[in-house]
Specification:
Urease, subunit C, domain 1; five-stranded mixed sheet; 7 helices; elongated
C-alpha cells in the first residue's frame, strides 16, 4: 500500500495518545481542513493531556516529546456518522441477513456486545462521533454510550436515541397473536399522551436524541403530533 494515501483521523490519534501525560508531537505530511476544502503540508500538531495544544508549520517540538511520524500520511479531523445502528448486526448465519429475525433471535445482551465491536471498528475507521438511531434492542445503545464515557471500552462519542417511537407496530406488520414482538424495536405511540410518554421513557433510559418513525404506517404522524417532540418554545414556530 502506498502510505501517502493513508487517511488518519486527528481525534482517533488523540484517543490513542490521550492516556499519557507526556507531550506527543505529530509530524503531519498533509493536514486536511474540511471547512475550507484545503490541505496544508508539513504541519506539526502537539497533544498534551488529551487535548490539541498547537497546530501549524512552525510549531516547536518540546524536548522529550513523543514524536509520531506521519509525514507520508493525509490526516483529517474525526468523521461523523449521522445515522447508524451499532447494536444491529446483519449476519448470514443464522438469520440470513434478515433484520426481523435478528430482532427476535438476538438478545439485548449479545447485541450490546456486537455494538462494542462495531463501535471499535467505527473508531478505527476514523469516525469519532456516531448518532445511533434505534434498532438496538432494549437500550443497548445507552449501555454502549455509558461504557465508552466511563472508559471501559474504546469507541466514538455516542449520541443515542433509545427505542424508535412510531405508530402502532412501527415498521413491523405483526399478526395479532405476535404483537409483543414489536418491542423492543419500537415504542407504540398513537395519541398525544402516548407520544409524550414514549419521549419521557427514552429520556429516562438515557436517550440523548429522539427518533420517530413518521410514516411507518399509512396513518403517519401529523405536523402537530411531530411538534410534541419540540421544546415548548419552538412549538409555535
Amino acid at each position: 500500500m502506498n502510505t501517502k494515501w493513508i487517511l488518519l483521523s486527528l481525534l482517533t490519534i488523540l484517543t490513542c495518545v490521550s492516556a499519557s501525560a507526556q507531550v506527543t508531537a505529530l509530524r503531519v505530511g498533509h493536514l486536511i481542513d474540511p471547512e475550507t476544502g484545503t490541505v496544508a503540508d508539513n504541519q506539526v500538531i502537539l497533544v498534551e493531556a488529551g487535548k490539541f495544544t498547537a497546530i501549524g508549520p512552525a510549531v516547536s517540538i518540546p524536548a522529550g516529546a513523543h514524536v509520531v511520524d506521519l509525514r507520508n500520511a493525509f490526516v483529517s479531523p474525526g468523521l461523523v456518522d449521522a445515522h447508524d445502528h451499532l447494536a444491529l448486526t446483519y449476519k448470514m448465519e443464522p438469520e440470513h441477513n434478515s433484520y426481523y429475525l435478528t430482532s427476535v433471535m438476538d438478545s439485548t445482551a449479545i447485541r450490546a456486545i456486537q455494538a462494542v465491536s462495531n463501535g471499535i471498528s467505527l473508531l478505527a475507521s476514523g469516525f469519532t462521533i456516531e448518532r445511533d438511531l434505534g434498532n438496538n434492542g432494549n437500550y443497548a445503545d445507552t449501555a454502549l454510550r455509558v461504557a465508552i464515557e466511563q472508559g471501559y471500552i474504546p469507541g466514538p462519542t455516542i449520541i443515542n436515541s433509545g427505542i424508535i417511537i412510531g405508530g402502532f407496530g412501527g415498521q413491523f406488520w405483526p399478526v395479532p397473536e405476535r404483537e409483543n414482538l414489536i418491542y423492543s424495536e419500537y415504542l407504540n405511540a398513537d395519541t398525544n399522551d402516548e407520544i409524550v410518554k414514549a419521549i419521557r421513557r427514552n429520556i429516562l433510559f438515557g436517550a440523548k436524541v429522539i427518533k420517530i418513525c413518521v410514516d411507518c404506517k399509512p396513518y403517519g404522524y401529523t405536523v402537530d403530533e411531530m411538534k410534541l417532540l419540540l421544546p415548548k418554545r419552538q412549538r409555535a414556530a
